[in-house]
Amino acid sequence: MEINPAEYGSRSQSSQPAATPSIEAPLSSVSSMSTLWPVLGMGNSRDTLFGRPHATHPLNNHQLTPRVYEVWQELGSTQTRFCCCGRCVTGPKIDLWYNLCAWFFILIPSGLYFAFCSQKLWNICFWLPILTGVVLVATITFLLLTSCTDPGILPRRRLRMMLPGLDEEVSNVLEMPEDLRDCASDGLTPPNLPDLRQGQGYKWCSTCQVVRPPRTSHCDDCGNCVLTFDHHCPFVNNCIGQRNYVYFSAFLISTLCLGFSVAVGTGISLSGYEPDHPQESVTRNPLLVVFLLLIGVPTAVFLLGVIALLMFHIFLLCAGKTTKEVLTGRRVLQGRSMFERPPSFIHARAPVDTPLDS
Question: What's the catalysed reaction (predicted)?
Fold first, then answer.
């Protein structure tokens, strides 16, 4: 945001004597804006993330207004993390080892497969390693989309107050009833929801201070209310909700295809079949057998888990339920489908120039 001396001069003239030199007007206004940073919990300086310019004094920075992702933790949701300057949203740090485990079972067997099996399989049928490579790329892509996509976070009251028009946008997109749109305008006392609305699945979240629509639940791991919340998956380091459930389903399918392809290729390599030397057996090389077993055993175990998980989610789709609804035994008849993908409401890169109130 470029500092306009004329604009700041006009604002400061109302509070300063007319004899004050005009060159001090922008300095006064900019220094007054520096009081915004302690209110946001950011001290007297603004430290930016991921390579954005930072300054130890507001006068040294052309963009004084922070963005939503930079003040997100001051809103109360300290577990959600942003990367790529707010373009990607992911879960808490406590999921790190689970997420690394998922990457290990995808990359290590696949890497050993291409290192020790692809050349032999290329001589047998060159389509096998090509298809495996395509499926590997698809698996990584869908994993990243699942991990780094907003799952459908319902903005908290404080964020709605900071961004003009956000509350109305959320109410219109989610088709909130008229009697629930302004029932929690103060955000201090829980509203008395009508029995009819409670029966339809509307609930009050005391943490986010908003009325959440049907099939929306608060995730304790991420600290957010998520639309059509299915579950929190530590292996993808994110919640599975209305906006990334399609990516999660595609990830399960591609992972199943990848595991099957790697297992088949490993089995062909262990069989000892050689087109040019039918009598030569791969088992004569003990070192190669060890490496192939390192591929096959983890892949087989991981493949069984993926098959079970995929079958469970196929059951959920046929039953029209979410994982949480099955585990809790509560089912809400109203609500959106898991495959309806509304726009993101968090607007992570939107500028914020309104102080946070209590």
Answer: L-cysteinyl-[protein] + hexadecanoyl-CoA = S-hexadecanoyl-L-cysteinyl-[protein] + CoA
